[in-house]
Amino acid sequence: MHKKRQETGVANIKTHSLDHEHILSGIIKCPICGSGMYGNVNRKKHPDGGHYKDYFYYACKHRTFVNGHKCTYRKQWSEDKINVAVEEVIRKLANNPKFKTEIQNHIGQSINTQELDREHTGLQERLKQVIGAKNKLANQMDNLSVSDKHYDKKYEDMQVCLDKLYDEIEEIETLIEEVETRLYNIRQEKISGDNVYQFLLFFDKLYDRFTDIEKKTFMKSFLADVNIYEEEQAGGRILRSLKFRFPVFFNGKEIYELDWDNESTVETVCTLICEAKH
Hints:
Elements: H1 2-8, E1 28-29, E2 37-45, E3 52-60, E4 77-78, H2 79-94, H3 97-106, H4 114-142, H5 151-201, H6 203-206, H7 212-222, E5 223-228, E6 239-250, E7 253-259, H8 263-277
Parallel strand pairs: 1-5
Antiparallel strand pairs: 2-3, 3-4, 5-6, 6-7
């Protein structure tokens, strides 16, 4: 294994079920420690002895708490069971007519970055002024007369001022870079959000045709967390909450989380599901 890791740069090399991906790996959270649960495979020999079958599970890796104790959650969940539960919720959301209307209204909608744009313009103007003051001071230093009896003192005072101006320039440039990074992230998030929404409009038609890796890519783009109960609830409920990376639009409202322990959210989810059936 060490030799393979040196040759390939990865710890494990898949030799079976090559098309399979742990779709919600890392997104699904342990109900005890809150850490990401990851995929496990259990290869079992078929009763007839002719071949093996792979069974896939999500399991906690038993992270260590701050107090030194390890997470004790031992239950392994069938990947198919969890995946289907999550897919069903998204499918019902995506099939809701109001949901589709809201998404269509938001795709391509311009983003408001006026405040950041004004901040960026103000910093650029401030930088221009400080650079001008720095250049003017540097020119004055160059033109100091060495015959002036206060030459050394004046030069020293000017050098202190010049150093302060350089510090201010560096500070302003850092602030400009931070604002530009925030603007870039906002615009990239908008692009990513639009891509996810475009896909959600055709979720029913496209998702089942996707390979596992494509499904995994979509889930990681759309879902931040999948929280589950420790045990299956009455009625077969497993999911406790879903947190989205982008807002889910319904009735003019933005929902970033579906929480089955929250009565108002449950009511909203039930409404979505009921309307999707009609």
